[in-house]
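Predict structure. Chain length: 262.
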Amino acid sequence: MSKDPAATPIRVGLFVTCLVDLTRPCVGFAAVKLLEDAGCVVAVPASQTCCGQPAYNSGDSRDACAIAAQVIEAFEGFDYVVAPSGSCAGMIKVHYPRLFADDPAMANRAQALAARTYELVSFLVDVLKSDAVAASYTGTVTYHDSCSGLRELGIKAQPRVLLGKINGLTLKEGRETEVCCGFGGLFCVKYPDISGRMVDSKVDDILATGADTLLAGDLGCLINMAGRLSRRGSGVRVRHVAEVLAEMTETPAIGAAPGGGG
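Prediction complete.
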């Protein structure tokens, strides 16, 4: 992407997400690298917490509103809010305005933040108009379209635009790229048998591609699928798409034993 050297840098607040913070910090570092390489000034507000989605999905609107208000406060000063997760970005962009429908003042603040919130890859392609990144990856990958990113935010072509320009990478599409992996947050807790059958079907589709690497933009989906792949003895590597786009794949793949390959 060409940049005007005289232009004011875009100030981005990175919404790290709980799963990235607690289980996969390298995804956060990869997101920062991608954004800074694209010319953004990135900050990570220390006061951020969960997006509130677990409370919201379980019907606890009171706590969801309290969490959302804290997020709104933390991120109001940025040009954009970017999250390496379609799920969390979807919560802020789609559901925050609904949470405050009966509170006009907060609804306006929620809507203003929602308008500036994007999932990471969507932000790179749709806002910054990037169509390539300086990265290489040797292998055949397949991509899983997470439910929130696909259905709430329209993320489908964007990761493929960037992956298609990576040196050494071959993308092999599955037949069920848009089918839910069975995680669904609390869904896998409430309906474990159904969830298990769904992720088994997803794993069958992944293995049928012959890909050596599985990519996606949501850690919840990736952790779920990585666990099932591991239990079935598969050697397929599992990574967040940001790790490959940022060429930060020195850490073990998701679900791999510490010190393992990836």
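Summary: The longest strand covers residues 136-143.
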